[in-house]
Write a structure and sequence with these properties.
The protein has one domain: Serine Threonine Protein Phosphatase 5, Tetratricopeptide repeat, CATH 1.25.40.10. The protein is mainly alpha-helical. It contains nine helices and no strands. The longest helix has 18 residues.
């Protein structure tokens, strides 16, 4: 909530030491690893959270972590599969829609990208998705992760039609 991803990692690890079957702690740790690294650990943590709690009402966040990790690692086809699952579980979350817009655009599916981008903008209700500069105003993790977002997520959003300014 405070974008203190690196500081939260040992806290989630402590929660898991107390209860290894806490799907919420696994999912939270996965989100932290997505932003602070290492990204490859985010996928296995989110998969374990799904395995432990397949009917969790917040399962969409685990799907999103897996999809975003695949996107950041330039595995666009896999990213789309997981981001579509996240969209089905959480249709009103703008970040899921913008992730899909980016992935679709990177794969050359510009019409689908435009639809998801328009929906992200509508759901957001503000102007966050009106330019790359406004999207970048959000925290995007440690320098290595920010570089991956630039090479994938932002590159895809540019292809989807998001202007720089």
């Amino acid at each position: 909530m405070q974008n203190r991803w690196e500081e939260a990692i040992p806290e989630y690890e402590m929660a898991l030491a107390l209860n290894r079957n806490s799907a919420a702690a696994l999912q939270g740790l996965g989100q932290c690893k997505l932003i602070a690294g290492p990204i490859d650990e985010a996928i296995s943590l989110a998969e374990e959270a799904i395995r432990l709690s397949p009917r969790d009402p917040y399962i969409g966040y685990a799907y999103f972590v897996i999809g975003a990790a695949h996107l950041l690692e330039s595995r666009t086809a896999e990213a789309i599969v997981w981001l579509e699952k996240a969209r089905s579980a959480m249709p009103a979350v703008p970040m899921v829609r913008s992730g899909l817009a980016s992935a679709y655009a990177l794969r050359g599916e510009t019409e689908r990208a435009a639809i998801e981008l328009a929906e992200a903008r509508r759901l957001n209700g503000g102007d966050t998705f009106s330019s790359i500069a406004k999207i970048k105003a959000q925290p995007w993790g440690v320098p290595k992760t920010r570089a991956l977002f630039e090479a994938t997520y932002f590159a895809g959003l540019r292809k989807a039609g998001v202007p720089e300014e």
